Amino acid sequence: MAAPLSVADALARVLDPAAPLPAETVPLAQAHGRVLAEDLAARRTQPPDDVSAMDGYAVRAADVAAPGARLRVIGEVPAGRPFDGTVGPGETARIFTGGVMPAGADTVVVQEVATRDGDTVTFSAAGTPGRHVRRRGRDFATGAVLLRRGRRLTMRDLALAAAMNHPAVPAHRRPRVGLLATGDELVPPGTEPGPGRIVYSNGFAIGALARHEGADTIDLGIVPDRLDETVAAIRRARAEAVDVLVTTGGASVGDYDLVQTALASEGMRLAFWKIAMRPGRPLMSGRLGEVHVLGLPGNPVSSFVTAVLFLVPLLRRLQGRGDLSIPDEPAIAGAALKENDERADFLRAMLSTDAEGRLVATPVTDQDSSLLAPLGLADGLLLRAPHAAPVPAGGPCRVIRLPA
Ligand SMILES: Nc1nc2c(c(=O)[nH]1)N[C@H]1C(S)=C(S)[C@@H](COP(=O)(O)OP(=O)(O)OC[C@H]3O[C@@H](n4cnc5c(N)ncnc54)[C@H](O)[C@@H]3O)O[C@H]1N2
Ligand code: MOO
Predict the structure, then answer these.
(1) What is the ipTM of this complex?
(2) Which residues, if any, are the signal sequence (predicted)?
(3) 300 lines ligand 2 (CB under 6 A)
(4) Residue 363 near ligand 1, beta carbon < 6 Å
């Protein structure tokens, strides 16, 4: 039998056919979290002139070289209303924060050291040349590319884009993710499950993860383990024009695991089924026309972990991001780790900081892939490569932080 597919090879097969979705123009107020489809250059210089950083007096530095200088006030410069006169020797203009420095003046003296008497002002302290003046272009100059394509816009980026004079930005369309749960046993939360039935849970975490990653989600509901109903739900997904169809459950080898059969009957080209990881071995992926299909295992932990490792990079690629995977980082094992077998293991772990400030990852005690209570305690995944050697408590390991 061929060796099972590695996580890296499987991820490459998910990502290879995925290209960024087309760009659209998004008003800034809606652009938080959207990914830029083009570089953004400043359309103006900021500040557009030399301006005062303080409320005070615009002076010529030479006039205030020593304490006690007394100058004649020839005008006033509030922000947004430049003064068209020139400050000559022995003269000053009253100026406010953001006011444009008048011609002739090169320094601002703060009003706290000024005593005003009609048209004259006396300064109890000397001024330093250039003090309290923000130079033209100190923030940025016209043409400067400050935000690059592929960047997911932060709230701070929105303020920057606005200051650059962009009312809207070109961003890749948000992926539409259809979520389909399968299983006769599933009932929605809040209902009384009958005998042998359980409450549908995993879609809530996966949907939130997809939206956190910038996607719109479409709930395709829960279908029983029947081929006709599964096929009907797949058709609904296509009618909804989803970019990604995420199924949960029915991915394994049981008599009622019909998802792959249903997808194949609708024309899915299978990329892979089953990979060398734990949890999540029965992961399946393929393409149904333009739709990227991820068939996640039903166990709630398996579905969430595979969504973090495969759905997140797919959604990032579809939005044009360059940083596809949640990065892993070094940590200290909070407990001894035994030698690993041939499957990459993603242990649910609690993260903490030790006395030396190092990140510590302690695996939860019960790693069974059905358990949501330990998953709730875990805020990281401790990565174990295939055949990794044992690590004593306190030894090095690598972790990825789970999104909140
Ligand atoms: N003979 C074998 N049996 C199994 C294998 C195998 O290789 N050979 N793989 C096991 C592994 S590993 C996993 S993971 C599961 C995955 O199976 P399925 O994807 O077919 O999932 P189901 O059987 O439908 O469900 C598994 C488990 O999860 C519960 N479930 C399903 N959907 C949800 C949901 N939306 N919310 C909450 N819980 C859900 C379901 O009730 C089952 O208990 O297969 C193993 N078996
Ligand atoms: O791969 Mo399954 O997810 O180990 O339980």
Answers:
(1) 0.96
(2) none
(3) no
(4) no
What is the set of domains in the chain, with CATH numbers?
Answer: 7-21+173-318 (3.40.980.10), 23-46+139-172 (3.90.105.10), 51-134 (2.170.190.11), 328-401 (2.40.340.10)
Residue from 179, 230, 253, 299 whose mutation best tests the ligand 1 pocket (most atoms within 8 A of CB): 299
Q: Answer yes or no: is the C-beta of 297 below 6 A from any ligand 2 atom.
A: yes
Of all atoms in ligand 1, which is nearest to the CA of residue 182? 32
Give the ligand 2 atom nearest the CA of 281. 1
Which atom of ligand 1 lies nearest, measured to the CA of 274?
7
Q: Can you give the pLDDT at residue 1?
A: 60
pTM of the model: 0.94
* Ligand in closest contact with the CA of 250: 1
Amino acid 219 reads D
Beta strands in 283-373 (DSSP E): 284-288, 291-296, 328-333, 344-353, 359-363
pLDDT tens sequence across 224-277: 999 999 999 999 999 999 999 999 998 888 787 899 999 999 999 999 999 999
pLDDT of residue 230: 97
What pLDDT, in 10s, does the model give residues 343-378?
999 999 999 999 999 999 999 999 999 999 999 999
Q: What is the pLDDT of residue 255?
A: 80
Give Cβ neighbours of residue 239 (< 8 Å, ≥ 6 apart): none
Q: Is the CB of 281 under 6 A from ligand 2?
A: yes
> How far apart, in Å, are the Cα atoms of 251 and each of 5, 191, 192, 296, 330?
16, 25, 26, 7, 33
The SS3 assignment for 332 reads strand
